[in-house]
Amino acid sequence: MKNTTSRTLELTIISGESISHPGKRPIKKNAYVTINTESNNEQLSTALDADNGSYPYWSQKFIVDMPMHATFFTLEVRCRNGSGDQAVASARVPVSDFTRWCFPNSYLHFLSYRLRDRYGERNGIINFSVKVLSSSSENVGDAGGCSAYSSPVTGWKHGGGGMGHGVAQGVVIGVPYRY
């Protein structure tokens, strides 16, 4: 029997950009990503990227079981060197960035997030994709709990309205911005 208090995600860690060690020294090799959720019973991490330096490429897929009450998950870029593993940068990803809108289950979201080091300074970008495979809202319809907005012709329907009138609230998600 399926646990209705969790959602299953397909999370693909794709790549990183401009990642450096503390002190702005570029990473040369052995970067990897760990995935942390509020209920991590097991450590999820990518393989080491030994070839691409500050622009690591993983393209590794994970199936992650997250509780419905989880508000975010964390992606942490780490580097393995002679003295052990070192945390380089991380990004907290709000679950609402891919569950808030009325997209059908199994809709593939491609996201890029700004990484921050332990002092809060910018330290590169991480690119990943996420797809909600199943959740407790599946029994409501194909639109991930938004069956009231579902249309048999198009699959889903835009809520209408203009910017700032209760639809989008003027929020842009998943797009890095240099400031």
From TrEMBL:
- Could you tell me which Pfam families the record lists for this protein? C2
Question: Where in this chain does the record put each C2 domain?
Answer: 1-108
GO terms under biological process: defense response
Question: Which CDD domains does the record match to this protein?
Answer: C2_SRC2_like
Record InterPro entries: C2_dom, C2_domain_sf, C2_SRC2/BAP
- Report which superkingdom the organism of origin falls in: Eukaryota
Which PANTHER family does its entry note? BON1-ASSOCIATED PROTEIN 2, INGRESSION PROTEIN FIC1
This protein is called: C2 domain-containing protein
| Native source organism of the sequence | Tagetes erecta
